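Forwarding these from the shared drive since the link keeps breaking.
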Amino acid sequence: MTKYEELLDEAANAQISVDEDYHFKSALKGLYIDQNIALSDRLDTSAEKACVLAEELGHHYTTVGNILDSSDFGNAKQEHQARVWSYNRLIGLSGLMKAYLHGCRELYEVAEFLGVTEECLRRAIECYRAKYGIYTEYEDYYICFEPCLAIGRK
């Protein structure tokens, strides 16, 4: 089962309907409104759909009200919370470690192993670097975020 299929199941279990082929007139990739998620018909891959669906599920779990006006600080903060939720749901420190243990060494290998896009993975790593600093420890491993992603055993 792909990450995208897992997220579709999660949405169904939370009684959230998902329109997987919505035609937005703008560049919007996804939208969450009142137990409904619309995904753009321009999303090409399962990985891309997973990244957008996870963020929209993040809105379900972490945001309140209409936050479409990104110039509002409160809205921007809620948008960030939804993205962080999606990064943790899709990737997380445990996912980075599992990819390393699976033999993934290049960014594209990690993204493929986790079922996400490289862009989503890069943004998640930036988010983790902002949260943890240059590196963090997870179980018996260290995870370095600078100058590039590196994982090793303590």
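-- next protein --
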Amino acid sequence: MNKIAVFPGSFDPITVGHVDLLKRSIPLFDKIIVAIGINSTKKTLYSLEQRKAWIEKVFKGYDTVEVKDYTGLTINFCKTENANYILRGIRSAADFEYEKTIAHLNHSMNENIETILMLSPPELSSISSTIVREIIYGKGDVSKFVPKEVLEGI
């Protein structure tokens, strides 16, 4: 059985925190699907195509990383992709409490899919796409918070 993980998120935009988590996860799985969730009620700053292109550019040469988009529940997407793991990052105690609740609900819907929670390194724990978007809106410098591939496109 292949170890396939889904790393879900909006990635609006992808941050150095996302990149760090993914790179640390690559040795653990046979394949990681970076799954861009499409939520019609959520307003994004960047198009799906732009976010997908950035992730593909950042992970060019990493054969075990794929980028896909999906709608609906992550647990259902995992099933369609034959993924047995959901990969999530934890920056704080609040993240842990939230992710723990979602992991328990997902497990009750499909006990064959495990959620793997990975801690952010302390120096990246304050970075989120939401905060990066606010800095971009305010015309601030995000060069420390996003990969160079994103900087080239904003």
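The beta strands are 4-9, 31-37, 65-70, 85-90, 114-119. Residues 4-151 form a domain with the Rossmann fold fold (CATH 3.40.50.620).

- D.
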